Amino acid sequence: MRQSQIRYLGLVAAALLLVAACGSTTGGTASPSAKVVKVGLVTDIGGLNDKSFNHLADVGLEKAKVDFHIQGDVTESHTGGDYIPNLTHYAQLNYDLVIGVGFLMQQAVGTVAGQFPTVKFAIIDGVGTDAKGNDLKLPNVVSLVFKEQDAGAMVGVIAGMMEKDKLTPGKTNVISAVGGVSIPPVNHYIAGYKWAATMEDPGIKVLVGYSNDFTDPAKCQSVAKAQIAAKSEVVFQVAGGCGLGALQAAGQAKLFSIGVDADQGTADPSVIASALKKVDVATYTAIQSVVNGTFQSGALTFSIVNGGAGYQLDNFPGGALPADIQTEVDSVMAKIKAGTLTPPDTIPAG
């Protein structure tokens, strides 16, 4: 584990406890006489209604507004061309923290943070880079990154064991994943999913496809339908708002699906579980560090080890996992926490 990650573990643990304490306004709350901290959040093109990571970032901001009495404002990006103007808007107004949501904003954050060295920045799922993708390691940027493979592994265990135990309608031994754009955060999820499913059932077939889109549900629905035609019975969506179409495709086919980032159990009745990536906690943690005067540049990593990743059981038939699947899920999670199992961050071949 990198030193920059280690130094944050106490802060992450504290933030997780605060976020879990719904309605809490204690611990780090700004006093009435204190300067009001201003935070500007810039979403990726998926927008606040993606039921995924942009939505979760806003959830973290809203909780911080209540707990710390900060001013929090949100600007939605509609195209990649919006990133720099939106980030610059808050920097020019001298906000205390400007947060960019998403890997696709890396260069924009690198550019704007370099132009405004006295303004603090945070980026979800990436770092501030130059035009060639090199990390600029700017002293005013904190990177909020995740081991998505940990969460992917949890739902991969579930999907793999469902096929192994013949709990799917056609018992085809085929599952799939629909990615948005082939970028590291997406592929980390799929890597953990495929690795775990294959670990549980070496004979399973895992189909992987991409919509090359994060916003249009029709595109992901099309990819999912092709996978279902190829006999997939469990569809894992890793495509933000676009992926909602994949969930719907599984529901229409009376098969199973798995949500991503947030708990997506209400998105479609077919969703049996969701791979969780606690972007709300990461956002809250970054804001808390500014409020408390403990902001540090570098990388803060969220994983199963510190409670920043996991899974949520949703509309699973019967309301609970069968005992053997639950036992295996618990065992794999414990081994990942202990470091005796390490999900890969690149998609396994085959």
Describe this entry's structure for a reader:
With 350 residues, this protein is an alpha/beta fold. The protein contains eleven helices and twelve strands. The chain has a six-stranded parallel sheet, sandwiched between helices. Strands 7-6-8-9-10-12 form a six-stranded mixed sheet, sandwiched between helices. β6, α7 and β7 form a beta-alpha-beta unit. α4 packs parallel to α5. The two termini are 29 Å apart.
Brief sketch in words of this structure:
This protein has 350 residues and is of the alpha/beta class. The chain is built from eleven helices and twelve strands.
CATH homology-level superfamily of the largest domain: Response regulator
Large-scale geometry: elongated
Total number of strands: 12
Order of helices and strands: HHEHEHEHEEHEHEHEHEEHEEH
Largest sheet: 6 strands, parallel
Please estimate the helix content.
Answer: 25-40%
Poorly predicted sequence stretches spanning 5 or more consecutive residues:
1-9, 17-32
Provide the domain count.
2
Rg on CA atoms, Å: 20 Å
Strand content: 15-25%
CATH topology annotation of the largest domain? Rossmann fold
Main sheet: strand order: 2-1-3-4-5-11
CATH architecture of the largest domain: 3-Layer(aba) Sandwich
Report, as a whole number of angstroms, the end-to-end distance: 29 Å
If you average the pLDDT, what whole number results? 92
**Number of DSSP helical runs:** 11
State the secondary-structure class: alpha/beta
CATH class of the largest domain: Alpha Beta
